[in-house]
Specification:
The complex is a heterodimer of chains A (258) and B (752). By secondary structure, chain A is an alpha/beta fold. Helix content of chain A is 37%, strand content 14%. Chain A has one domain (6-252): 3-Layer(aba) Sandwich (Rossmann fold). Chain A has a 7-stranded mixed beta sheet, with helices on both faces. Chain A is globular. With 752 residues, chain B is of the alpha/beta class. In chain B, strands 17-16-18-19-27-26-25-22 form an 8-stranded mixed beta sheet, sandwiched between helices. Chain B has a 6-stranded mixed beta sheet with strand order 5-4-3-6-7-36, sandwiched between helices. A 5-stranded mixed beta sheet of chain B has the order 9-15-14-11-12, with no helix packed on it. The longest helix of chain B is centred in the N-terminal third of the chain and has 23 residues, at 44-66. The chains are: A alpha/beta (258), B alpha/beta (752). Chains A and B meet through helix 1, helix 2, helix 3, helix 6 and helix 7 of A and helix 8, strand 17, helix 9 and helix 12 of B.
Chain lengths: 258, 752
């Protein structure tokens, strides 16, 4: 305590009772730590407007993360894309093939650490949106196909420990993803994940969730929060399970005794 | 000089050359065989007589062809040498011959027995040799036995004796030794016993008599050996094994001391136990480089050789994988990008801890359970585990995000960790620097700057290298200085900045927010460690490709360079000096590799580098100035002239003084394996004498005239005369007679 000035000491003394009741989200965490943007693609309308902001509010309420929405949606050709390493593409219909410039930017964006989450809001097993997504991802990343991701993926444990996928509907029992080495820069849900979270202007949920009703909606919210945390933490949770073992190993080697 | 001697020997004067001789002999044999066959049907005495007559005839023909002769030599017996060889290995320095050493006993005996030695020699030449590491060195008697030979090799010395004597075999050899051999004789004894040594000795061709000195039981002695792995890892336990062998001194109190670079790091009080005992020590070298360890025991009373009471070894300390601890109170793009970079570096073991939920345990959904979170083991991390990491990164990290308790103790631990050789990096964010309540803390004392209470500022700016930053390896983003500057000029702008206070003592500014703007990044050497401050959480922008490849390449190269500098990666040193190995013996040649790099890390060609080679203290043995070649390198040769820690120092001289001085260390061992076993080996010497036809001289003062010697058979030829035997008339007569007799007999028998 020798380094404490009298002023600091008194300040700390006075703050102790306050700390006990201090809000977890400290005032100093007021600035969003990251920005998220919706992708705008020619010929595609946003099927669940406002849902992303609501999700970010839920993330902020339940975790240490505070994200903010970009002002308006962003096109892949826009250089501002590289200031927002997390973008979301949501749609329910076909869209025009992406331009070469858009594909080049998408390729660069994903290579350099960007993350793209795609949500098929059509609720159909075979949708035009799905066809267009696969078409353009194949053009952008010809050597990296969309593949189902296993339950051991970090997205299932990035915040909540989840055993299954969820959404407004259950079209696929898994998420799909694109792998680049050890990283999954693209995740794709076919189950209208945002549809389960979409609220009407009155505040209630806008769409029914089938077949699992409210329980399925709760799971969908958890999965959506996990997707956001995964975008920020990557595979942190996957190796976090190894951290203990790593620390134990280091202790056995004696590297810690002081 | 004796009178000339006549010697007659039988010899040959062949009529034909080598191949023709063989052909002629073959023809004679075939002729005899054909003759034998022609006598088929003939039996008894007649056949024997005919065969004998034909045989005699052919033998006489052969004699004519091969030319027997008598060789008469006139001359005198050649003078022979008689060698007295004294083992001059270090074991002969053991003082177990009363008050004197084995070597001194041999030297004194030689003086006192000079007359008998002359009598032994007689007309032959008496020559004295010292046997030193298998080599015979003439000894004129004036020089006492030095006992300086590092090892004993009796076999090599004895087999080389004829060559030393101009190709002559000696008449005899008297070998004075303790038999503590380390060469072929010892190996033969080890694998085949006395019989193998006798067999080997029989090949010498001259008798070797022996006088064995020393006790087979060995003298009282404490022997220390130190074993260490060839290299160790920084801040990892390194096991050193001390092998302690005690002879004849059981029960004596001993103090075993271990030193690291001259400083005592451990000591143990022991009671001497006969035979060998192993004592393990664990040390933790705290920095990359070379560490010299010395194990020693103070010589107890009765210890015959003090020289083997200490052993030294130098260990090269390297970094295995850089272990980095990254902690953050709030995941962000900056956190994600740095983690991604460090995680994909194969040379880094990264342990990340992200605080994903606040101290109030989150909202209703989080409180409902089912979270995958684990408790943040901050108490362990910042109390026990720090030393396991090479670098600790606080990235937007605030203790208040997970505990209401004051973190004073942890911050003091962190400061001590850095002072003792660790590295610390603070990266900006809402809860970093002053905003993380670190102002006035122990942590501030090790940071490069004072801390400001001001909160994070927002607004785009470009990072600019300061003058110090342009040259500093922590900000180096490319070996080529032009590319390095281009990358910084093309860097994407940043959007946040934590205000920093004034630079602390010894700190260097690296980056400024805008040209001539406020400080953005700084570094500092603190105690034995290093620290760095980077006051923004937007460096991830340098890693995204929108600003072009130069900018995208800036991010990984900047942070990798910063980490390398923080953890003192050897590659970041601009001047390097390396020994060709870590452990030498006294007198060994030493090769030093010196490498010099410019500020831009290109080779410094033609640089004048001062190089010193010496001990830890005192005047250096070698002091030279050398110029680097086109690769910025130069090799300097020297000799390990002193035992203990050997230090090579190199520096570049400028008007401002020494620049980039570096040093490397190695160990020089004084003793050799010779002192591993001090007991005499009379059995080996006895087998050597027996196998070679020599004798074993016994007692403390043996008579040299008992030395075995072989007869003088060698002549110095003065004249040689050849008398042929084949050109006698009676030989021709006998040939005619045998042929005639055979012809007559065949006619009478009715043969053709």
């Amino acid at each position: 305590m020798s380094w404490l000035s009298r002023r600091s000491f008194v300040g700390r003394l006075l703050s102790l009772p306050l700390l006990a009741f201090a809000p977890g989200r400290d005032a100093r965490a007021g600035r969003p730590s990251a920005t998220v943007a919706m992708l705008r693609v020619d010929g595609l309308s946003e099927p669940r407007p406002g849902v992303l902001q609501g999700l970010l509010d839920d993330v902020e309420e339940n975790s240490s993360v505070r994200l903010t929405m970009a002002d308006g949606s962003i096109r892949l050709e826009d250089p501002r894309l590289f200031r927002m390493p997390f973008v979301v593409l949501s749609g329910a219909s076909a869209f025009a093939p992406l331009s070469d410039a858009a594909l080049a930017n998408l390729r660069l964006f994903l290579r350099d650490g960007g993350f793209l989450f795609i949500d098929d809001a059509s609720g159909r097993d075979s949708s035009d949106f799905d066809r267009c997504v696969r078409r353009d991802l194949k053009r952008a990343l010809p050597g990296s196909p969309l593949v189902p991701i296993g339950r051991d993926h970090a997205v299932y444990r990035s915040f909540f420990l989840l055993g299954a996928v969820s959404g407004r509907v259950m079209i696929r029992p898994h998420l799909e993803g694109v792998w680049q080495g050890d990283i999954t820069p693209v995740l794709y849900s076919r189950n209208d994940l945002f549809g389960a979270l979409w609220r009407s202007p009155g505040g209630g949920y806008a769409l029914d969730v089938v077949p699992g009703r409210e329980r399925q909606r709760g799971q969908a919210l958890r999965l959506a929060i996990n997707v956001v945390l995964f975008a920020l933490t990557g595979n942190y949770k996957r190796d976090a399970v190894h951290v203990r073992a790593l620390l134990e190993r280091m202790r056995r080697q004696g590297g810690y005794s002081r | 000089m004796t009178a000339p001697l006549l010697e007659t020997q039988f010899g040959w004067q062949p009529l034909l050359g080598g191949a023709a001789q063989v052909a002629a002999l073959s023809v004679l044999l075939v002729a005899y065989a054909l003759f034998w066959r022609s006598l088929v049907g003939l039996t008894g005495a007649r056949k024997i007589v005919l065969l004998s007559l034909r045989g005699a005839s052919l033998l006489l023909v052969a004699a004519l062809l091969f030319g027997p002769a008598l060789v008469h030599s006139e001359g005198q017996p050649r003078q022979q040498s008689l060698a007295v060889i004294v083992d001059d290995s270090r074991s002969m320095g053991v003082r177990d011959q009363g008050p004197q050493s084995r070597g001194e006993a041999a030297a004194n005996w030689r003086r006192e027995r000079a007359i008998e030695l002359e009598e032994l020699a007689g007309d032959d030449q008496l020559r004295f040799f010292l046997l030193r590491e298998g080599e015979l060195v003439p000894w004129d008697g004036a020089v006492p036995v030095s006992s300086a030979g590092a090892s004993t090799d009796l076999g090599t010395g004895l087999f080389s004796l004829p060559a030393v004597l101009d190709g002559q075999l000696p008449a005899g050899v008297l070998l004075i030794s303790d038999g503590a051999d380390r060469g072929p004789m010892a190996r033969a004894m080890e694998h085949g016993g006395s019989v193998a040594v006798e067999k080997l000795a029989a090949e010498l061709g001259f008798p070797v008599s022996v006088w064995s000195l020393g006790s087979a039981a060995g003298p009282g002695d404490v022997f220390v050996q130190l074993e260490a792995p060839p290299f160790g890892f920084v801040r990892r336990p390194l096991e050193l094994k001390v092998r302690l062998r005690v002879e004849e001194l059981e029960g004596l109190p001993l103090e075993l001391v271990l030193r690291e670079d001259g400083q005592i790091v451990a000591s143990r009080n022991l009671s001497a136990v006969l035979g060998e005992t192993v004592h393990s020590f664990e040390v933790k070298p705290d920095q990359v480089g070379f560490r010299s360890y010395r194990a020693e025991v103070v010589a107890p009373p009765g210890d015959s050789v003090a020289e083997n009471n200490a052993a030294e070894v130098t260990v090269k300390v390297i970094r295995d994988r850089t272990r980095v601890l990254q902690v953050t109170s709030r995941p962000s793009w900056d956190v994600k990008f740095l983690r991604r970079l460090l995680k994909t570096d194969p040379n880094i073991d990264l342990v990340s801890f992200f605080i994903l939920r606040n101290a109030d345990r989150g909202g209703p959904l989080a409180r409902s359970g089912g979270l995958s979170l684990i408790a943040f083991p901050y108490d362990e991390l910042f109390s026990q585990d720090l030393e396991g990491f090479d670098l600790v990164i606080f990235q937007d990290f605030w203790f208040g995000s997970f505990t209401h308790l004051p973190p004073d103790r942890f911050l003091e631990n962190l400061a001590a960790y850095v002072q003792e050789g660790g590295a610390f990096l603070m990266i900006g964010g809402d809860t970093s620097f002053g905003a993380g309540d670190y102002a006035g803390s122990a942590l501030e004392s090790i940071l490069p700057t004072r801390l400001s209470d001001a909160a994070l500022l927002q607004g785009d700016f470009k990072a600019y290298l300061t003058e110090a930053g342009r040259r500093h390896p922590a900000a180096r983003v490319h070996p080529d200085f032009v590319v390095h500057e281009d990358r910084w000029q093309g860097a994407a702008s940043l959007g946040t900045r934590n205000p920093l206070g004034a630079l602390q003592s010894g700190a260097l500014p690296l980056l400024a927010a805008g040209a001539g703007g406020p400080l953005l990044a700084a570094v500092r050497n603190v105690g034995r460690g290093r620290s760095m401050a980077f006051a923004s959480d937007d460096s991830w922008r340098w890693g995204m490709g929108s600003s072009g490849e130069q900018s995208a390449a800036l991010y990984p190269s900047f942070w990798r360079g910063a980490v390398r500098w923080l953890v003192r990666d050897a590659q970041e040193e601009q001047l390097q000096v390396l020994f060709d190995r870590e452990n030498y013996r006294l007198g060994d040649e030493v090769q030093l590799q010196v490498r010099s790099l410019r500020d831009d890390y290109s080779p410094r060609v033609g640089a004048e580098v001062h190089v010193e080679l010496g001990g830890l203290s005192g005047e250096p043995w070698k002091n030279t100035i050398v110029g680097t070649d086109s690769g910025g390198q130069v090799t300097v040769s020297g000799v390990a002239e002193g035992s203990g820690v050997m230090v090579a120092r190199a520096w570049l001289a400028t008007d401002a003084g020494k620049l980039a001085a570096v040093e490397a260390r190695a160990s020089v061992e004084l003793r050799s394996e010779e002192l591993l076993e001090l007991a005499a080996r009379p059995q080996l010497l006895a087998a050597l004498a027996k196998g070679s036809g020599g004798r074993v001289l016994v007692g403390d003062d043996p008579d040299p005239r008992e030395t075995a010697r072989r007869a003088a058979t060698s002549l110095l030829a003065l004249q040689r005369r050849v008398v042929p035997l084949w050109d006698r008339w009676w030989l021709l007569l006998i040939l005619v007679a045998t042929l005639s007799a055979e012809w007559v007999l065949r006619r009478r028998l009715g043969l053709r």
